[in-house]
């Protein structure tokens, strides 16, 4: 018979990790401040114990993540842990971030979109390739996360064709029915300088490109003969045109208005303010000598940038739908405003957008909150016999 070999006792370090995590999990709802938990996780990360950060997040999600009313301490700590993993560069950090997201809430699409945005901002494309190859058991990622990550990288001007693992997944037929598959794998001409967030462990910063462009305005002047107008707004148009702005209304204090109109005769730029004032839009109710309406020409790139920012980073009280779906929403809104078919290929939609004349407008009416989140866009189709209007406002 072989000699009995005594069992090796559990390593104190491993036992200590488990015990420490359990104590944090049980005490969390009673904490008045979570700074100590943040500091503990950051110290362990600095010591090279990347797995501890993911383990803690998974344990907290298991205990509190499925609650209908999540305690604020959980939301704060989980976000901090995810940011610690995604903002510290390196493949191990990517693996543990993927492990955390996959285990914590695999069906939470908002979390997946957020994680993709964080990863694309904080990690190199080379380190992110493991997301698409599954090089370790820790690197499992859902197709939804991968789809979002592809377009978060595109928005950061990463050349997907130079990344074999990512390109192989992005061009494979199995996900071509996904909504994001409609988008091109490189930035188009109108997607110039996307206003993207910059993340840190403690927060994020991003541009808010709302309001009128610099340049001459065309103010509301004397009454001139206007062409006969027929409203052609449908619910389908309204839904598509406001795609980039719906998050303001659903998750913040926002409201929006959209309409499209056929004109019996072409309209010139000088007549546009008067025509807009005559459309009986709620956002322009009361415009006149004391409540001015001003219009300035803008490029389609500017219109896309405004709509992308509104969709991806949200309004006064929300965070939007992040980059990948923000990109899709901006395209949907511009396509509708330009009169393009929403089922057309992206190249055809882009040509239609570029053939339109675009204008920014502002109005000193009660409808616009006048805080920081005001949008007014007008498109005039080629031939100047169709116009579309989109307005939105939000407040804190």
What tags apply to this protein structure?
396 residues; alpha+beta; Protein Transport Mog1p, Chain A; 7-stranded antiparallel sheet; two-stranded antiparallel ribbon; 13% strand; elongated
The helix/strand class is: alpha+beta
Give the CA-based shape: elongated
SSE series: HHHHHHHHHHEEEEHHEHEHHHEEE
As laid out across the biggest beta sheet, the strand order is 3-6-7-8-9-5-4
Termini gap: 77 Å
CATH superfamily of the domain at 218-394: Repressor of RNA polymerase III transcription  Maf1
Helix fraction bin:
40-55%
Task: Please identify the top-level CATH class of the domain at 218-394.
Answer: Alpha Beta
Total helices: the number is: 16
The major β-sheet equals: 7 strands, antiparallel
Low-confidence stretches: 1-16
Q: Could you tell me the strand content as a percent range?
A: 5-15%
Tell me what the CATH architecture of the domain at 218-394 is.
3-Layer(aba) Sandwich
Mean of all residue-level pLDDT scores:
89
* CATH topology name of the domain at 218-394: Protein Transport Mog1p, Chain A
What is the CA-atom radius of gyration, in angstroms?
Answer: 25 Å
Total beta strand runs: 9
